[in-house]
Structures are given as structure tokens and as C-alpha cells.
Amino acid sequence: MNTTTLGEIVELQWKPILKNRTEQNRTEQKRDKRKMNEIKKLSESSKSASEYNIKLDEYLRTTPEITEELFVALDEAYGYDAATTISWAISKLRILRTRLINKEEIKLTDKEPLKTEEDLKQLVKTRYPSISDDIFKDNY
Is position 70 within any domain? Predict the structure, then answer.
């Protein structure tokens, strides 16, 4: 008589699925780490804040995927609540806005991609509500 328990049956059925998900998670984590390191490398390879900003602006204009690390930096700038850091965050978000106006899709790590200016407006209104108008005014 076979005395396989329900737990063993579940484990046999789910083990290959969980193993596959674990491998996918590792691959995604490695990809995310590489992406996060890109911005860190920009900072480390820059001789000044000005050079870093030039490199970051170019990165934002050309990279197909924006990492959560950038949004963490924007969160910090927004949370610091000083004119300089707020202006910095606005300028970076305007670059993303320009790309969306030009019909470029921007992938986001672990989120739905930004496909339209309206998508960015929703993200900004949620994360950075007090600067939303500054980002989306037409005469910048």
C-alpha cells in the first residue's frame, strides 16, 4: 500500500515550479544588480557633480530601462526638500517626459512600463505630488 501524504504530493507537484521561479528570481536579481551598478558607476567615474549630471542626463535619454535606484535617488532629492535637490529631480523627470512625448516607451524595473506622458503623470502625482506641475508645464 502506497502511503504518500498530501504534503509529499504537493511538494512533488510544486518543487519543479518553485525551482524554476527561484532560478528566474536569481536571474532577475543579477540583472537588477547590474542595472543598479550602472548609475553607481556613473557617479564613481565622474570627477564632479556637474560631470555626473551630464552623464546621468545622457543615461536617462538613452537607456531602455529605468531602475528603482534612480527613483530612490529622486525620492531622496524630493524628501530633502531644498530648492537645489528639488530642481535636480524636476530636471531628471522632465527628461523622461520628453522621451514619452517623443513616443518612446520606458521600461521600469518591477513595474509596468511608461508608455505615455499620462503614465508618468500618474507616477509623479503619487510619488512627487508637490512638483507635478513643474514637470508638466509646457514652457520648460
Answer: yes
Cβ neighbourhood burial of 20 (10 Å; 0-12, 13-18, 19+): exposed
Tally the C-alpha atoms within 13 A of residue 47's C-alpha that lie toward its C-beta: 0
Which of 77-95 are b and which e, b meaning 16 or more Cβ less than 10 Å from the residue's Cβ?
A: bbeeeeeebbebbbbbbbe
**Which stretches does DSSP call E strand in the chain?**
65-66, 106-108, 111-114
Spatial separation of the C-alpha atoms in residues 33 and 45, rounded to whole Å: 18
- How many domains does one find in the chain? 1
Q: What is the residue range of 128's domain? A: 6-136
Q: Is residue 1 part of a domain?
A: no
Q: Is the pLDDT of residue 113 over 90?
A: yes
pLDDT at 36 over 60: no
Q: Is residue 129 part of a domain?
A: yes
Contact 46, 59 (CB under 8 A): no
pLDDT digits (tens, 9 = 90+) for 58-83: 999 999 998 888 888 999 999 988 99
